[in-house]
């Protein structure tokens, strides 16, 4: 008889994280919910990551764990390998250098079993290496919308949608989270929400997501340039779905302002100004009338959390008055003293 498929496939993409991956693996082993498999894909690590993983597997014979050793496929290729090997009804993508809360799978599973939604999402907590909380990303507002959840972290995705619509991660210069969630959301119809931080996103100098002190693929212009053509395809797919389209544009605006602000904290201000002009051209290529989006407001109810809603509103206001560059100069100075994430 074929093995019963688990409810959840927890996948961990690993590459040279020997000093971090134990925290993620131990947090998965500590879950109170047990109807899951653990799929680990190592992307040709050159450090001792594989030895750490194999020692963990040997120490936990009671767990359903499979390790796949890939040649160096890149982060997105490594995630796609995990997707190909997963067997669960739902799939959860985890990064090797993060960790999840002990009740994460239980709370996500409860929502999944409640109504069989296409996606289950939770809050994400940004922490430093010592575990100090930097921010809780309450990704949606009083209107619970899957469109506001641009991270794959802390989410359950229905695996069948990936298969039926041939959805795959693509190298997106740092925007792969936004890309996969947006494309997936354009096919998904239902979602459930857990209003609690279940995923801990560790911000450190080695993390792919951490802001760098030089121009890298995670600098905003590179992150937004690569999404232009895929977002045009999503735009076409949403024609005739007015509510979804308005929310799609609004979350794209939030991503745009994220690329402008969060990703330029350590970049020279002249470079910031130059890239800002190019980024604005990108967003206008996707949606020329983005500043007229009906969700750009301070009124309630809103699909965005208060913090993000204010940033979006005032940023759009500054753009209308052609005052974004002076604001960027002020932000450039302020961000040296305080951690921000839109």
Describe it.
By secondary structure, this protein is α/β, with parallel strands linked by helices. It folds into two domains: 8-202, Spore Coat Polysaccharide Biosynthesis Protein SpsA, Chain A (Alpha-Beta Complex); 220-334, no CATH class. It contains twelve helices and nine strands. Strands 1, 2, 3, 4, 5, 6, 7, 8 and 9 form a nine-stranded mixed β-sheet that branches. Strand 1, helix 1 and strand 2 form a beta-alpha-beta unit. Helix 10 crosses helix 12. The longest helix is centred in the C-terminal third of the chain and has 20 residues, at 242-261. It is globular and about 60 Å long. Residues 209-215 have low confidence and may be disordered.
Percentage beta strand: 15-25%
- End-to-end span in angstroms? 49 Å
Q: How many whole angstroms does the radius of gyration measure?
A: 20 Å
User: What is the CATH first-level class name of the largest domain?
Assistant: Alpha Beta
Mean pLDDT: 91
- Specify the CATH homologous superfamily of the largest domain: Spore Coat Polysaccharide Biosynthesis Protein SpsA, Chain A
User: Judging from the principal axes of the Cα atoms, what is the shape?
Assistant: globular
Percent of residues in helical segments?
40-55%
Low-confidence stretches: 209-215
Structural classification = alpha/beta
The oligomeric state is single chain
The CATH topology of the largest domain corresponds to Spore Coat Polysaccharide Biosynthesis Protein SpsA, Chain A
The total count of helices amounts to 12
Order of helices and strands: EHEHEHEEHEEEHHEHHHHHH
């Amino acid at each position: 008889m074929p093995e019963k498929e688990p409810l959840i496939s927890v996948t961990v993409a690993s590459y040279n994280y020997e000093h971090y991956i134990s925290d993620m693996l131990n947090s998965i082993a500590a879950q109170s919910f047990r109807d899951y498999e653990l799929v680990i894909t190592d992307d040709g690590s050159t450090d001792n990551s594989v030895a750490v993983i194999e020692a963990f597997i040997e120490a936990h014979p009671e767990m359903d764990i499979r390790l796949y050793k890939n040649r160096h496929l890149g982060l997105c290729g490594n995630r796609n390998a995990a997707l190909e090997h997963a067997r669960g009804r739902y799939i959860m993508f985890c990064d090797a250098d993060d960790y999840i809360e002990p009740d994460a799978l239980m709370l996500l599973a409860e929502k999944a079993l409640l109504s069989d939604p296409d996606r289950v999402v939770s809050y994400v907590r940004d922490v430093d290496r010592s575990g100090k909380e930097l921010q809780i990303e309450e990704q949606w507002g009083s209107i619970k919308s899957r469109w506001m959840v641009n991270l794959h972290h802390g989410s359950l995705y229905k695996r069948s949608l990936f298969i039926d619509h041939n959805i795959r991660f693509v190298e997106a210069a740092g925007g792969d989270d936004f890309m996969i969630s947006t494309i997936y959301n354009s096919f998904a119809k239902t979602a459930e929400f857990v209003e609690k931080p279940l995923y801990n996103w560790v911000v450190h100098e080695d993390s792919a997501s951490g802001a760098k002190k030089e121009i890298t693929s995670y600098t905003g212009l590179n992150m937004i340039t690569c999404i232009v053509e895929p977002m045009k395809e999503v735009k076409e797919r949403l024609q005739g779905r007015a509510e979804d389209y308005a929310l799609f544009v609004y979350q794209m605006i939030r991503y745009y302002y994220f690329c402008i602000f969060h990703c330029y904290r350590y970049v020279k201000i002249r470079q910031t100004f130059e890239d800002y002009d190019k980024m604005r051209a990108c967003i206008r290529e996707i949606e020329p009338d983005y500043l007229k989006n009906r969700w750009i407001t301070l009124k309630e109810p809103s699909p965005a959390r208060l913090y993000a809603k204010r940033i979006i509103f005032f940023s759009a206001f500054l753009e209308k008055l052609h005052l974004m560059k002076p604001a960027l100069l002020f932000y450039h100075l302020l961000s040296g003293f305080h951690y921000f994430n839109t």
